[in-house]
Amino acid sequence: MALVTSRGASSSAFTHQSKNFDVFLSFKGEDTRLGFTSHLYNALCQQGIHTFINNNLLMGEQISTELFKTIESSMISIIVFSENYAFSTQCLDELVKILECKKNDQLVRPVFYNVDPSEIRKQKGKFGEALAKHEEKFKDVEKVQRWRNALYEVANISGWHYKHKYVSTDYFLLLRVLIVLE
């Protein structure tokens, strides 16, 4: 699937209507927003790929219907897994929605940013710790189980691994090429 867009590079924080995007980025802001994810976002936009990055959702805020519509209307979702991703219920809710959209042929690609996919799959380390905290806090076994299932499923999807402290432009060039070629 090639992403060729005549709309030009653009982004969105929420307006009052969802738009169709080529790429939806899911990430834990405090881990990657000011480094890896912002570089990825800029590289995609420079390539003319219409990319959504959420800059408006405040910590503790519920995910809006508009965000779910934005996920639904995107062609590809890229999930940037970082060590604290699973501590965010917002990220986990996005992940569940992304995997629902995958059933309708949305392309989903994980980026494992300084995390091992087996840690996500087996829900060990920080991922296991986060889910245990959610189970204590919510007492909603079904919701936490949906998050567990989603993490397991996406950790089995072929993705990109990034295990360096500094982000190189070569890496983003590679990501752009891979996205465009898929």
UniProtKB/TrEMBL annotation:
Keyword terms of this UniProt record: Hydrolase, NAD
Annotated ranges, domain TIR: 19-175
Transmembrane segments: none
Keyword NAD attached: yes
Enzyme Commission number, as recorded: 3.2.2.6
Class of enzymatic activity (EC top level): hydrolase
Entry GO MF terms: NAD+ nucleosidase activity, cyclic ADP-ribose generating
Short name of one Pfam family: TIR
One BP term from GO: signal transduction
Catalytic activity: NAD(+) + H2O = ADP-D-ribose + nicotinamide + H(+)
Plastid listed as a keyword: no
Record InterPro entries: TIR_dom, Toll_tir_struct_dom_sf
PANTHER family: TIR DOMAIN-CONTAINING PROTEIN, TMV RESISTANCE PROTEIN N-LIKE
Name of the protein: ADP-ribosyl cyclase/cyclic ADP-ribose hydrolase
Native species: Quercus lobata (Valley oak)
